[in-house]
Amino acid sequence: MSRADVPIFDAIVRIDRLPAGGRSLAVEADETVRAQIAQAMNILSVERFSAHLTITPLRGGLRALGHLDAAVTQASVVSFEPVAEMISEDIDRVFLPAPRTHQAPTAGSEIFIDLEDDDFPDHIDGPEVDLSPLLLETLALALSPYPRRDGESLETLGLGADQAESGPFAGLAALKGEGDKD
User: Fold this and answer.
1) Cα–Cα distance for residue pair 6/3, rounded to 1 Å
2) Which residues sit opposite 90 in a β-bridge?
3) d(Cα 26, Cα 165) in Å, to the nearest integer?
4) Measured between alpha carbons, how far apart are the two ends of the chain, in Å?
5) At residue 47, does pLDDT exceed 90?
6) Is the CB of residue 27 less than 8 Å from the CB of residue 49?
7) Is it the case that residue 173 has pLDDT exceeding 50?
8) What's the whole-number mean pLDDT along residues 29-47?
9) Angle at 89 between CA 139 and CA 76, to 5 degrees
10) What does the alpha-carbon distance between residue 12 and residue 21 come to, in Å, rounded to a whole number?
């Protein structure tokens, strides 16, 4: 088993041992796990990571419904200073067994595709589901793609667009401009 296959934290649910009324799953990450999550997400730190899920059986699979709360720190895209962010995301995901037949549909057969459905179920193969990738995916999608501090912009750093360009391409542009005058 490679390092990529080892989950950062334990959130494995066995479908064959899931009670009919469902069960609860709580994940509270300790300092070591939070450091691994920060490294996996390529952010500065994770101060808090907790998730509470209710897992219920559904058509041979399961449904995970719950909430994720996290406090993270990312580097600002403008000044690289730390930017704190609070994450609070609802989770609702369905895991169903993969179809047993892997045959192509016959000619003339009908295939139903629901274009209104935003979330297709995840397919599982086997008696257990690891929910840790679901929780990490939820965190990754909730992170701000361009974190910055309040009022921070390139102009506050003195890097406005009104400055003359510098560098090798600015020199080439100046040479091209001289050639147009001839």
Assistant:
1) 5
2) 67
3) 54
4) 68
5) yes
6) yes
7) yes
8) 95
9) 50
10) 18
Amino acid at 179: G
Q: What is the largest CA-CA distance in the chain?
A: 84
Q: What is the pLDDT of residue 119?
A: 64
Dihedral through CA 135, CA 144, CA 75, CA 10, nearest 10? Answer: 0
* Count of CB atoms situated within 10 Å of the CB of 138: 19
Q: Is the model's pLDDT at 2 over the cut of 50? A: no
Give residue limits of the domains in the chain.
3-99+117-157
Task: Give the pair of three-digit tokens for residue 32.
Answer: 């070591």
| Token digits of residue 110 | 């009908």
Q: Are the beta carbons of 91 and 68 closer than 8 angstroms? A: yes
89 C-beta neighbours (distance < 10 Å), count:
15
- Looking up tokens 């909430």 gives 67
User: What's at 11, amino acid-wise?
Assistant: A
Q: Report d(CA 30, CA 171) in Å as an integer.
A: 53
Cα dihedral: 17, 21, 25, 26 (round 10): -150
CB 77 within 8 A of CB 145: no
